């Protein structure tokens, strides 16, 4: 059962469910961080405080915090991470020219370009708007950060527009990372004497100037109103063409509009919530790292037995990338090389869109099953009728 109403209503509903049964799993949302414990005491198996999760995710993508790749998912020892190419040596290079895999062991499996995901190829060109999707071990991602991290940043504070739950969570994450910030918030009661909060309207140039927009490396737009976020994105982009703009979107249909308005990165509240719930339900079989982008397991199909990864042509034929192999003899091999020979007992860990996952099944499993059935059919005989 999934409960997604107000904190009080969710508590009442979960408590009522527990009077009827203890076996049904209960997943609930909490708007306030103070409600998490109460919902757990009422009987929730899992409580998601999405506003806090979203605020922390926004802050982790800020230039200066993302000195290392931002981990967005874990599949056993395999880590999936994002890394903005903006202001790094990667801008203007193709993936082949960057030599990321050769120098760090990290595999670039895809790129986000203004909200759209594309599988990576050697010819994929990286721009200042590109966000890389990386796969690797903790050690490999650490090496990637040391080689390709942003080196020179403005020393001005990060600007956060909105002092709600998302803005507060973002500020806490920045503070933990040693990054200075300023919050622009309309409500005087939110400030409570905090000199890092500028009381004023973000549409007022004076408020933004006071908060330091002229020197800020990044601005986080965290309000819950998409129309206002689009307005503020356009406004901030007109003031600072070179600033990194990261915005929240409440409705999924607003993501593309925010990118068109000038946002470099957009975090969707709806997608993040759906991903979290789906991953909880699916457990260890599938990891949804973003909308329509999954990490999943597959036994090596029979047509690929004893073929090398290069010979399998999995990426070119299905648009899925093999990011790890679980071998009975060697354990988990992260980003195995093209000469690795696939064994019947191996398990592939792949990343791809839902369409790519279906294509993998059609290419290597369904066609083989059909061919095998055809070979077993005796000449001149007919298939048995269905019962």
Order of strands, main sheet, comes to 11-10-9-12-13-14
Question: Roughly what is the average pLDDT, rounded to an integer?
Answer: 85
How much helicity do the residues have?
25-40%
Main sheet: strands, sense, barrel: 6 strands, parallel
Strand content: 15-25%
Which blocks of ≥5 consecutive residues have pLDDT under 50? 381-387
Distance between the termini: 37 Å
Anisotropy-based shape: globular
* Continuous helix count: 15
Class based on secondary structure composition and strand pairing: alpha/beta
Q: Care to count the β-strands?
A: 19
Radius of gyration: 24 Å
Name a few traits of the molecule:
six-stranded parallel sheet, single chain, disordered C terminus, alpha/beta, 15 helices, five-stranded antiparallel sheet, 387 residues, 37% helix
Describe this structure in words.
Helices cover 37% and strands 24% of the residues. It has 387 residues and is an alpha/beta fold. Helix 3 crosses helix 7 and helix 10 (226-239) packs parallel to helix 11. The radius of gyration is 24 Å and the shape is globular. The model is unreliable at 381-387 (pLDDT under 50).
Describe the protein's topology.
Elements: E1 2-3, H1 7-20, E2 27-29, H2 36-42, E3 46-48, H3 50-60, E4 70-75, E5 78-84, H4 95-98, H5 100-104, E6 107-113, E7 116-119, E8 130-136, H6 138-148, E9 158-161, H7 165-176, E10 181-185, H8 188-191, E11 197-199, H9 205-211, E12 218-221, H10 226-239, E13 244-249, H11 254-261, E14 265-268, H12 269-282, E15 286-290, E16 293-299, H13 309-312, H14 314-318, E17 321-327, E18 331-334, E19 347-352, H15 354-376
Parallel strand pairs: 1-2, 2-3, 9-10, 9-12, 10-11, 12-13, 13-14
Antiparallel strand pairs: 4-5, 5-8, 6-7, 6-8, 15-16, 16-19, 17-18, 17-19
């Amino acid at each position: 059962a999934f409960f997604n109403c107000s904190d009080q209503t969710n508590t009442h509903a979960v408590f009522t469910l527990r009077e009827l049964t203890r076996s049904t799993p209960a997943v609930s949302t909490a708007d306030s961080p103070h409600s998490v414990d109460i919902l757990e005491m009422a009987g929730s198996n899992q409580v998601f405080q999405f506003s806090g999760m979203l605020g922390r995710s926004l802050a982790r993508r800020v230039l200066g915090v993302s000195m290392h790749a931002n981990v967005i998912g874990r599949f056993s020892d395999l880590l999936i991470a994002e890394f903005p190419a903006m202001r790094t040596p990667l801008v203007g290079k193709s993936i082949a020219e960057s030599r990321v895999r050769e120098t760090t062991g990290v595999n670039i499996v895809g790129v986000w370009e203004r909200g759209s995901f594309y599988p990576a190829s050697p010819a994929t060109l990286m721009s200042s708007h590109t966000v890389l999707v990386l796969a690797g071990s903790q050690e490999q991602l650490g090496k990637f950060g040391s080689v390709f991290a942003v080196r020179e940043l403005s020393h001005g504070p990060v600007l956060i527009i909105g002092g709600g739950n998302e803005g507060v969570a973002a500020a806490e994450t920045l503070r933990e990372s040693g990054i200075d910030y300023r919050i622009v918030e309309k409500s005087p009661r939110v400030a409570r004497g905090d000199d890092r909060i500028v009381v004023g309207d973000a549409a007022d140039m004076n408020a933004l100037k006071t908060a330091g927009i002229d020197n800020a490396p990044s601005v986080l737009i965290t309000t819950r109103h998409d129309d206002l976020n689009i307005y503020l994105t356009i406004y901030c982009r007109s003031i600072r063409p070179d600033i990194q703009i990261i915005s929240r979107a409440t409705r999924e249909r607003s993501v593309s509009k925010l990118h068109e308005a000038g946002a470099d990165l957009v975090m969707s509240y709806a997608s993040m919530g759906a991903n979290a719930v789906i991953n909880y339900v699916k457990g260890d079989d599938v990891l949804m790292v973003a909308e329509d982008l999954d990490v999943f397991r597959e036994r090596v199909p029979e047509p690929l037995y004893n073929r090398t990864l290069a010979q399998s042509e999995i990426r070119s034929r299905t648009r899925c990338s093999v990011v790890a192999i679980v071998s009975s003899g060697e354990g988990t091999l992260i980003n195995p090389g093209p000469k690795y020979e696939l064994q019947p007992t191996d398990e592939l860990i792949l990343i791809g869109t839902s369409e790519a996952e279906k294509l993998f099944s059609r290419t290597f499993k369904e066609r083989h099953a059909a061919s095998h059935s055809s070979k077993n059919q005796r000449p001149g005989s007919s298939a048995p009728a269905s019962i």
